[in-house]
């Protein structure tokens, strides 16, 4: 279970680096290692590449 301080923590888009707190961003597990990935709606719409910081998996 996550704490309230964790829920309020700022998250950044893994593709462009903007703060995505309070936006319609996506949160999902890396397909390879399960690390939590955050992406803004703009990067998802444009299919910008991302790289998992833990395992190096690259996806659109």
Give your account of this protein's structure.
- Pfam families: HVO_2753_ZBP (PF07754).
- The protein is of the alpha+beta class.
- It has one domain.
- Helix content is 17%, strand content 20%.
- It is built from two helices and four strands.
- Strands 1-2 form a two-stranded antiparallel ribbon. A two-stranded antiparallel ribbon has the order 3-4.
- The longest helix has 5 residues, at 4-8.
- The termini are far apart.
Q: Which helices and strands appear, and what pairs or packs with what?
A:
Blueprint: H1 4-8, E1 26-29, E2 36-39, H2 41-45, E3 50-51, E4 58-59
Question: What attributes characterize this protein structure?
Answer:
60 residues; 4 strands; disordered N terminus; alpha+beta; two-stranded antiparallel ribbon; two-stranded antiparallel sheet
Question: What's a quick, concise take on this entry?
Answer:
Helix content is 17%, strand content 20%. By secondary structure, it is an alpha+beta fold.
